[in-house]
Design goal:
By secondary structure, this protein is an all-beta fold. It is built from no helices and nine strands. Strand 5 (63-70) and strand 6 (73-81) form a beta hairpin.
């Protein structure tokens, strides 16, 4: 059976590496990287989401926790340990699929925080930042 795309949303705060410099805070604080709105019809049951974020470790070997929200509900998390070489740029991409997404207009956002017990770990978001998604059924 063929699938149909019902809606598409995207946010591209920056499309270039080294185009910004935002310190990633330690848990429980976080920063919103990107957000967009997406209409999900009642007959659609899946939302596919894609994110790409450029980062660099500025001290030690931090672990970044990326979280995707639908409205205020957490629907996806992933932990990524950044390269050990301080100052090396790293582009991280990840995908998420929300199955049985409720119908209606929703705000999708992606946030990041440092998930570490070492207070000396540090990292920055340096760009690019892209976040997109579409509803399919």
């Amino acid at each position: 059976m063929a699938k149909q795309i019902f809606g598409f949303g995207s946010s591209v705060p920056t499309s270039a590496s080294e185009s910004l410099n935002r310190t990633i805070p330690m848990t429980p604080q976080s920063i919103k990287l990107a957000a967009f709105g997406l209409f999900v019809p009642n007959q659609s049951n899946n939302v596919l989401l894609n994110a790409t974020v450029g980062v660099k470790a500025t001290a030690l070997t931090p672990t970044a926790l990326f979280t995707i929200f639908r409205n205020s509900a957490v629907i996806f998390t992933t932990r990524i340990t950044l390269d050990e070489d301080v100052g090396d740029f790293q582009t991280i991409s990840f995908q998420a699929i929300e199955t049985n997404a409720p119908g209606g207009y929703h705000s999708y956002s992606v946030r990041v925080e440092l998930d570490s017990s070492l207070l000396l770990d540090q990292a920055e978001v340096i760009g690019p930042i892209t976040f997109s998604g579409y509803s399919i059924g």
